[in-house]
Amino acid sequence: MRRRVERSGLAGMFVGRGRRRTLVTAIAVLVVTAVSVSFGSERGVGSMAAAAPPSAPTSSAPAVSSGSDDQPEECVGSRFATFGAVYDAIFDSLLPMMPPEIKRQEASIKARAHRDMRGLRISKLAVSNHPHDMGADDESPIMTYRDPISQWIVTQLMNVREGDATESIPVENLTVAQAVETVWLYLYVTVMVPLTVARRTVPSIATVAGPISVGTLITLPILLGVFAATQIYKSVSERLVESCIVSVTRSEKENAGKSVKDLRFTDSVPAIVRDIAGQVDLADPETCPAIGDLPLSRIVSRTSNYLQAITSNPVTDRQIAAMSDDVQRWMRQTHVHANLIPADPADFNTAEYAISQIGVLLPYVGGAPLDVVIGLSHNNNQGDNLAATAPISQLSVTKTLTAAYYAYALSAHMVELAWSEGGVDPAAALLNDLFPSAGITADMVPKSTGIVGAPNLYGLVVYHNVLRSMCLSEDKRPAPAQQSTQRVPVSAALW
């Protein structure tokens, strides 16, 4: 039975063959990119340890991917559109244009391709899943608080928690959603992050007009390019999940993204990672509050109990308990203006986010100072009393990490201003020491502040996103009998 390549549910009115082939071609390019970037041979990705010898596919990896005549087909989005199904759709779409010899060998060509895709496998540790594939819906915190790195960390913690982190996925079963998220992760780590760091290190070089310098003109395309790529990814990721990409049978849908149970990579998961994974789960606003929403008092008491549990000395246990009581007492007695901690940039609305991104080009006030003003305005606009105080014990983990983020960002900004207004950038100072007669100035060499700010953007922010995306497994409650009517279904696929 020939597969039908379906149009997006958002663009179902387009029925022309040209648009159908355009969608198929786009998916084909995605498939090729994903395979070339992230997938290795049957023995796994090159960076992984050697795998155990593969055996015959189990029920999670069907021998034949193509649909059966007696099974109805369902039009699915990227979460269930597997590489095997996409290959069949592309092949069937191009078959009418193929020579007669290819048409006669259609069955054998497709069978050989599916056999090769079943033999090409990748470790689950190298794949990043879409949040919907981990049980999230549109109301889950991970849909708001995520970046490619934090999403990969959450994916792997969930894999370890489920006990299948060492398994491998045949390319036959790999989904378009997994390919999109994984390719974006690799592009983010290898291209987007280095470009952002490089942009922050470009010196002003020379003034063109007013606050605009040659350095600004150089970095502007990088800023716009990273911003545009991020927005394109978000749009593609969201729309492909909700779209109608290809028709699959029920059994193919059930095997989408599934691993091969009898092929495992030999690397073992470190004990500390298994311990962490066993204590966390995916956060949900109705059944499991995110770690980022917990008060500091809960974190201190839990840490104290954990330390006492792993020690075998009663004297040490009493000392830990006494120190915990002192810390709790101090936090209850010390009050702070919690609402004077600006809103986290991840909570900015669209207008605030746009102003923040454009504002980095403004001299002196752009960057951290402008974000502080935007964050305070955000708090005020949502009705927070900026004069109110609260004990530190009641501060959430998110409030604390947001305060740390702004403190670091402002410190790095002040250091940059000091170096640009009479101070000496360490890089320029080093070059002047090496070449005393060169007369090198800070405007002639890369700025050190690009490196100084990286741990805040790609360390603390990632850690914060993980804490806002996950909850403590001990806090997980059964789902309510009648969930909120505002919760959006995970799958938009229709029969």
Can you describe what's shown?
The strands form five sheets. A three-stranded antiparallel β-sheet has the order 2-3-7. Residues 4-68 and 489-495 have low confidence and may be disordered. The chain is built from 16 helices and eleven strands. Helices cover 51% and strands 7% of the residues. The protein is globular and about 75 Å long. It has helices spanning 17-38, 83-94, 100-104, 106-119, 148-162, 176-201, 214-242, 250-255, 271-279, 296-310, 314-333, 350-359, 368-381, 397-420, 426-434, 449-469; strands at residues 73-76, 121-123, 167-170, 207-209, 212-213, 246-249, 260-264, 280-282, 335-336, 390-391, 470-472. The chain has 495 residues and is mainly α. A hairpin with a 2-residue loop joins β4 (207-209) and β5.
What's the structural blueprint in terms of helices and strands?
Layout: H1 17-38, E1 73-76, H2 83-94, H3 100-104, H4 106-119, E2 121-123, H5 148-162, E3 167-170, H6 176-201, E4 207-209, E5 212-213, H7 214-242, E6 246-249, H8 250-255, E7 260-264, H9 271-279, E8 280-282, H10 296-310, H11 314-333, E9 335-336, H12 350-359, H13 368-381, E10 390-391, H14 397-420, H15 426-434, H16 449-469, E11 470-472
Antiparallel strand pairs: 1-6, 2-3, 3-7, 4-5, 8-11, 9-10
